[in-house]
Structures
1.
Amino acid sequence: MPERTRIAAASIGVGLAVLGIKTLAWWMTGSVALLSDALESIVNVGTAVAALAAVRVAERPPDAEHPYGHDKAEFLAAVAEGVLIVLAALFILREAWHGLINPEPIRAAWAGIGVNLVAGVLNGVWATVLIRRGRRLRAPALVADGRHLWADVVTSVGVASGVVLGVLTGLTWFDPLLAGCVALYILYSGWGVLSASASSLMDESVPEHELADLRAIISDTGQGAVQAHDLRTRHAGRTVFVEFHLVVPSDMAVSDAHEICDRIETGLIDALGECSVTIHVEPEEKAKRGAIVMS
């Protein structure tokens, strides 16, 4: 089983464990804020399932119907995660409103807070694993899942602090008010996941610092050519797509031009890993200003 798939599958188990711990904390205390924290964990399980499904689809090789591969399935999963996060936030806001109208005292607060913090620590450790491994493996679904879990860690700490203040002050309305604040933060987090995923689905270019690296590689490996221009990039999951026009001397043999293209392509693949390179060769009279000049 590929490493990406193993990590995604493990996320489901971690999510179920955290959900059970947080549900226990809510059952012990009756706190609306702790209930909101537990409800978010249901979303965590759902997003982990979506991430696993997306990673399994993305692992499929290109076929006749999908000649560019299936990597964008991970971005679709990230969009689904964002939608689930937003829906969870809206549900928590409803529970917080009911709690403000009919506030109730918190039971066994200290024990419940301790149990909830255990879940927060578990989430924090696994979120770090997901983000690091996801970036190394170029798996957007895993990175999105990790960022969501980090948002959950922040809310867990905020919830625990707020419940403590509510118990110490005796203000029963403080608990549902805090749940509402948690819901707003989750809503913000969900919007961030949706925005990042939408940019990728719209074939957004790679970041500027990566573009600078690409230009340098083309310049260093393209000896014999005149210039390169009209560089375009996009990324789909772990694969980076690079396209540009390569200008060569008009009297250069096709075999020599092909050798230069192979050299550039090898340099890009060595630097980027999963990379699809398309080079259009042009004669010298097609040169443009502001192009990549060969070293």
2.
Amino acid sequence: MFQRPATTLYRNGQRLPLDGNPVRLSVNPRARRISIRIDARQGEAVLVAPSERRLDQAVAFARTKSAWIAERLSHRAERSPLEPGQILDLFGRPTRLVAGPGSTAARLTHDVQGPLIVSGGTGEAYVRRVLTLLKREARQVLVARTQVHLDALGQRPVKVSIGDPKSRWGSCSPHNRTIRYSWRVVMAPPEVIDYLAAHEVAHLVHADHSPAYWAVVHRLVGDHRPYRAWLREHGPALHGVGAA
């Protein structure tokens, strides 16, 4: 007798508590395997599967990693609004936010205590001006470091854009030669920023994360593990910046 194939109990985009941890199910047809990532801004784990039929496998896998998920979610940083008096790291250096006169644009300067960002405006207007400056600084340094690594590999130019993805620090599309970065990495130390640029440029050579790919990254920046560890540890804090 003909039997209908079993259907999954889960669906793309579904949210559910899993062993006390908030998780969201996500289908990505380009994914080669089941994986788990932490969405620091939403405070949840994201279970990624290549198809909806494999979401039940993703849930089963996540159950074996419940302690790890709980530990990573516990590191979620408190939200840090962008307002006068706050201190954020810019290129790894503590930088004070200061109120400026009127509606002047945000600018990066220094005083005897160190770097500071001075901006006019109040409330949302102040936040917009500071974000504009941070994104501009991010674009400038990431474009420069991207070009350094392109030259090192003999690669043609790419289009670089700056955004604010929820979890990724960068992404590369080799087919149309575009690289997209999170502006938030501008708050990381320079060597971490440089690693991120190398990480994405290396995808122009190898689109996967195979040993051959990591060999290219190693050629560009040496041992990448400390930089990846820094992003894992401090990423939640970076994602908390700019939230009310």
